[in-house]
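Researcher: Let's continue the batch. This sequence belongs to Xylose isomerase-like TIM barrel domain-containing protein, and it's 260 residues. Same format as the previous ones, please.
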Amino acid sequence: MEIVFTSLAYPELSLEDVVERVSRFGFDGLELRVADDGKHLKPEFPINRKALEILSSIKISDLAGYTRFHFSDESERKRNEKALETLIKMANSLNALGVRVYGGEFSEKSAIHRIAESLNRMNRIAEDYSVKILIETHDSLAKKDNIVKLLQELEEDIGFVYDPANVIYANNSHEEVFPLISERIFQVHVKDFVIKNNKRVFVEPGKGIIPLKKIVMDLKGFGYKYYISVEWEKMWYPELENGDFMLPKYLSYLRELLGH
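Model: Same format as before. Here are the structure tokens for Xylose isomerase-like TIM barrel domain-containing protein:
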């Protein structure tokens, strides 16, 4: 297993400064956020030469994109499919394992069919570029029942970004969801939190309610050999501790659990 962190930890830094911290702290690579706001890379292909030069010194686990596929509006789904195609090409040029996608937030059952239909279609393109499509357990797809239904329609080589904190926050458990997708996980998001005033408050590893030791033990027992990504989301929670303070704590904690 290799330990990376998401560039979400550093909304205030340039791409170059984020990449510098990969080697400074001793991480194995970076989960690179790619979004229209340009922090830290825009979804444009070909990738600009300067960014390619900066990124050439490190390993990229995946591109954390923001495409969603639950829409009933066909034109909106097609727009997201086109955006995913761009991300797939970018991932290929960076030798990244995959591209993170979302299902989206939905309540109607037909949304799961639309998600599977789009991703199965896009999987043809991903295969051509030797890139994995990775669905995050996020939004409505953090819920066990929706995951079960999606798996019934999804092609077997489409993978997952497993975020147990999202699963637990959706009132399911690691023990319920991990066995369903264990063979399809290519990245695991790690973060810990407590609940205060009905809100998630993110904390140092081992100080919250997420059973990180159990999760890592199960990954080791299964023979998982891909990426664990520390997801310190200062981009969305600016009140969080600085990444320079927290990322080394998570790295040390995970290394101890992994016996590195």
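Researcher: Any comment?
Model: The radius of gyration is 17 Å.
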